[in-house]
Amino acid sequence: MPIFAAAAMMAMLASQPKAAEYGYRTVGRVQRYEEVETENAIVIPHERHQWPGIYWEAGFSGRTLWIDFYDTYNRFRLIVDGKPFAIIDKPAGPYRISLNTAGKHTVRLEKMTESQDYAGTFSGFAAPRAKVWPTPARARQIEFVGDSGVVGYGDMSETRDCTDEEHRVRTDVHAAWGPLTAKHFNADYEVNAFSGFGVVRAYGGNFPKAPPLPELYKYALFEGDPRPPVDDSQWHPQIIVIELGGNDFSAPVKPGERWATDDALKADFEASYVAFVKRLQAADPGVFVLLAEVQGPKVREEVEKVAGLLRAEGNTRVDTFHVQDFELKGCDWHFDAADHQRISQALIGYIDAHPELWQGR
After folding, report:
1. CA-closest candidate to residue 56, choices 43, 68, 42
2. For residues 91 and 226, what is the distance between their CA atoms, to the nearest angstrom?
3. How many CB atoms lie within 10 A of CB 36?
4. Contact by Cβ (8 Å): 124, 13
5. What's the pTM?
6. 269 in Cβ contact with 245 (< 8 Å)
7. Are the beta carbons of 10 and 43 closer than 8 angstroms?
8. 290 near 321, Cβ under 8 Å?
């Protein structure tokens, strides 16, 4: 694809509105920074991203739109005027959209894959001789926190055995049960999830030096050291759905781990999960936290204990949600598309039965 002249492209991006969202709207955790192109004295905004499920939205006028983004790992879905337009894999620079009609249009770019070891860069939308503007935020906001079951790990696969590349191209975060539910309610959503990690422990007791999900949650990026802090001031969900525990209890405690017994692991899990929920509610007073369990009886028992501990302290903004019996035909015995649809329909039913949750504070 032909590349815009560098100076012209940067000038176009720099000319866009730079209010809160640089002329477009970002939903998801990113690290924002600006780069000065000294030769032309142009300031170019950038966003580094690593969490799954991030999306960018804007309105634009005209027939042509340029997207400036660079990513060596991820796949993206481009949606124009509400309809799928293209799948863009590992973008290496400006990408041009050419439409048949002028006038006003909408664009949405969805990050489809999970990139635990890779961070990409998004630098904006630009329309030649026209305008780009941020679309309005949706009134409803819902957040999904968890592990591979929330990420949508291998959800588009028709086989359980997948190579690393097959796992990558067969993962669509936006087809997982969280985004499916959010889209049903026309809600903005964040997916703050990381495959293999739990509240205090990783899958199978592996990765002993890796921080657990509540620690990762503090940051916009999890590559490099130190990790930059989250810049997420516009995000205040009415509902947070957490699905964790399957990795914590995926294997008995092993010699050398910090817990002497399985009972000690359970106690740590419960106390840490309670603290995590409290932290989320302190950050957004009035938010309703739904503790989901889709991993089986052992995890369900622990999740119920966590909810009970919170309720015993007078917390009325917490509940549990359970679904079981899945086909698990996705990569590595993960949820397939039908499983995600089933969980989503159950969650939609729960929220429909509690419409007051959208009132939040």
Report:
1. 68
2. 27
3. 10
4. yes
5. 0.91
6. yes
7. no
8. yes
- What pLDDT was estimated at residue 302? 96
CB atoms within 10 A of CB 228: 15
Residue 38: per-residue pLDDT: 63
- Residue found by looking up tokens 């005027």 in the block: 81
Residue 87: strand, helix, or coil: strand
Q: Is the dihedral of CA 8, 11, 16, 21 positive or negative?
A: positive
What is the Cβ-side half-sphere exposure of residue 61, based on CA atoms within 13 angstroms? 6
CB 293 within 8 A of CB 322: yes
Instruction: Quick: pLDDT tens for 28-61.
Output: 999 888 776 666 666 678 899 999 999 999 999 9
Given the residues 115, 123, 148, 272, select the one marked as catalytic: 148
Helix 297-312 vs helix 262-283: crossing angle, to nearest 10: 50
Distance CA 203, CA 197 (A): 6
Q: Which has the closest alpha carbon to 265: 298, 241, 291, 243? A: 298
Task: Provide the pLDDT for residue 232.
Answer: 77
Encoded tokens for 203: 């899958």
- Residue 152, CA distances (Å) to 148, 274, 341 in order: 6, 25, 11
In tens, the pLDDT along 96-110 reads 999 998 899 999 999
Which structure tokens are listed for 44?
Answer: 């170019």
Distance of alpha carbon 155 from alpha carbon 107, whole angstroms: 25
Residues of the chain under the 50 pLDDT cut? 1-7, 10, 14, 17-21
Amino acid letter for position 304: E
Q: What is the token pair recorded at 309?
A: 């501990």
For 27, the token pair is: 């939903």
Nearest to 140 by CA among 175, 186, 103: 186
- Residue 148 a catalytic site member: yes
Radius of gyration (Cα) for the chain, nearest Å? 21
Strands (E) located in 134-259: 141-146, 188-193, 239-243
Kindly list the distances between the CA atom of residue 164 and the CA atoms of 246, 253, 356, in Å, as whole numbers in the listed order: 22, 28, 42
- Residue 50 neighbours by CB under 8 Å, 6+ apart: 29, 115, 116, 118, 119, 120, 220, 221, 222, 223
